[in-house]
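Two records follow; treat each independently.
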Amino acid sequence: VLVESILSFNILLIVLVFGAAFFGSMIYWMEKGTWKYTTYTDPPSFAYMRIGADGETEEPTPFTSIPAAFWWFIVTATTVGYGDTYPTTFGGKCVAAMAMMMG
């Protein structure tokens, strides 16, 4: 049974890899925010800041790089959804909805 399903497993891996590259890049670009000096980090330094979930405050973006955004896509596409990273912008939520439907 495992030998017969190796083709399906390979297709699953290919879809996850290409999906991670595409949706990871898109969510990083949409949720990157602006490069600002912040005291949220220890020690205070520059970081990408995005609008928070409440729509008013700023917070450091959890999408610090495209490879880091791959983790978000893998978790989203496999329906695990830890909630450790999530989009807050309208564009990011649209990308997330497409990624969820794809997964």
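The next record belongs to a different protein.
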Amino acid sequence: FTSTRDDIITFKMMDKHLQSYEQNFTSWTDDVPTCKDSGVGSSSNEIYRKDGRRVPMHSYEDRSFRFRRDEYNLCVYGVFDGFNGAQVSDFVMKRLPAELVLGQLVPDIRDDLVKDMIRQAFVSVDKEYFGLIGHKLAARMVMRSDQQLARDSKLADLDDEVSSGCAATVALILNNKIFVSNVGDCQAFLCYGSHNGISVIPLSVDHNLHNEDERLRLQHLGHRGGDFSAQDNPLGPHWYTRCFGNYQVKGGYKENASLASCTDDPVIAEPEILGPIPVEDNLEFLVIATKSLCDAVHKCTKQEPQKELANLLLHHLQDEPSSSLSTVAQSTVDHIVRMYTEHEETDSTSLIKRDDMTLLVRNFGHAKSDPGSGHPNAQSPNLSQIDNQGQIKKREEKTLTRSSARPRPTRSSTTTESSGIYVAHGRELPVDEHGRIEPYVDFGPFYKLWNERMANGDSTPKNS
């Protein structure tokens, strides 16, 4: 490469222009309505230092969306767990729904065609992302081929950038049927209610080296290395065998000696798709959560995390009946963060670390009276709840007004500390019919003295 340095200058100019393009890039679905029968809660990563301070380990990398098209009787939800940066999760969050909610899926489409379109959307968005960063891939190839440039620290930066990726789980509801597709390990499950409690049905598959089917797929591709060790794992820290992004284990897999024997990309973006699943009358929730959130629940409770998470959601929905679903989801995440922190402070001997957490909830109870929600029971005015014994009971659904849509000014809030106090004491300050906190200080004596003083013509306070 005689003109290597000129090429690098050209790539830098391309990078500058494309960075400007990426900054101006907006989602094609900005005008698509958000599904109001759903909500999202999240918590950013943190590390607890020995001096008591909490600082982020890296930028927030999770993304999500929740869209609804009543004209197609369609709802689409997605959670994206990014790694090595938020470039991929941000791009997929903006582009993937455009492949699904802009008229491609119509009510009379066959189920097999729905699955084909979802599969095609995942694969095409992944390819589109690599096309977007093509200039970085080209610059990286040039630098790797030049011995002098190969020692440049900028090559390491490029390696980090092109290894960015994300796990993803997308749920689609069309004509009262649910389709769930995923790559990576974001969890999805359905919660059904009955008089005996709640039952949980998992919908997602973890795509990593702990999955026997995925190991067999790699072997069929010609991988001869057996199981990867934790010290020498070319698939990255999460061991993902399916994900968005992460060029080094896709188009660049031949560069890695552990993967070079494969005849095709060992890591793919093609999702596993489950469905159609009919929306039944006793369906309470669809939940999508990052693996980090479920792992935190399991570590604290030693119980099945999906069942425990469902119980927490129903608990907070009961405690905050006038709040939006996003407020309920956020209170649930805050509860888990507080619980996890207390557990680690008691049991852990090392620094407390917590990764990004995201929780998306679709509540079918709120939507039962709405014909565009995808629920078949359009006559039911009630919303299922769980009582203190884990039993399902019914409460009357309130009309959503400007005041009731706001989070109630009670002792519960979306902060970890306050939600902890709220849960610990199990008590909240009363509110009036407008959702405002009722007075708890009697100003009667003050107004009596003030009125007497005004009647005497003296409104100037006296020094005590």
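Discussion point: Confidence is low (pLDDT under 50) at residues 13-25, 366-429. How would you locate this feature using only the token line?
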